[in-house]
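Can't paste images in this forum, so I'm doing it all in text. The chain is below; anyone willing to post the predicted C-alpha cells underneath?
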Amino acid sequence: MGILVFFFGTAVGSFLNVLIYRSMRGQDWVRARSVCEHCKKKIPWYENIPLFSYLFLKGKCSKCQAKIGLVHPLVEGMTGILFLWWYFAGFVFFKITAAPLLYVQPAFWLFVAVIFVVIFITDLKYMIIPDWTVALLTIGTLAYRFALLYKGEMQFRDFGFSLLWTFCLVSFFFSLWFFTKGKGFGFGDVKLAIPLGLLLGSWQRILVAIFGSFVIGALVGVFLILIKKKKFGQTLPFGPFLLLSTGLSLVWGYAVWAEYVKILVS
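Text version of the structure:
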C-alpha cells in the first residue's frame, strides 16, 4: 500500500509542476496538453509518467534533446515522499481521537503541506508567492480552526490569541518590508505571514519560526556566497526559509522554546 501512496503522491507532484508552470505564465492548466518548454512538442502520456519518464528520457526531450528542468522530478519525488510520510506517520502525529476530526485533521495537514510545496517552488524559482496560494491556505486554516472550535477541541480564548499573534507577526514583516522599501523583504512574505501565523497559533512557535527562518536564510546565503553562486548583497527568496522554519516550529517549537528558557534561567 505504501508504494501506491508514494506513486499517487508523485502523480500529485506532476500536477503541481503543471499548475506552477502554467499559472506563472497565465496559461490554461486544466485543458491544455503538456508540451516541451523548448520545442513545444506535445508530450505523449508514456513520456509523462512521474519520475520514470525523466529517468527513461535521461532528463532530455525526446525530440529536441533539450534538458528537462530538474525541478520536475524533484517536485514529484518530494511530493511522493510527503504522501508516504503522511500515510505512515501523519495519522499518528496529527491525530485527534474524536470523530469526525480523526480524518479531518490529517487531511488538513496534507492540504497544508501540498500548498507549502507550491509556494516553496514558485518563490524559489520565480521569486513570487502567488496570491491564490496564500488565499487558499488562509481560508483552509480558518475553516479548520472553526471546525476545532465547533467540536470543542479549541477554545475561543486560544483562537483569539492566535489572531492577536498573527497580527503581530504580519505587523513585524510589514515593518521589514516598509523600512527596506521592498528591497530586503518582499510583500508576498508579508501576506504569507497571515496563514502561517494562524497555523502556528502561539507566540512561542511564532518566535521560534521567525528566528529559525533568519538563521536558515543566513546559513544558505553564506553557503551560496562561498560556492560563488551568489554575491554579497544579492537577494534570496525568503518564503522557502519561512516555510521550512514554520514546519520545524510546528513540530518542535515548544520544545525549542523550553530549552531556550532553560538556558536563560540557568
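Residues 1-93 form one domain. The chain has a mean pLDDT of 86.
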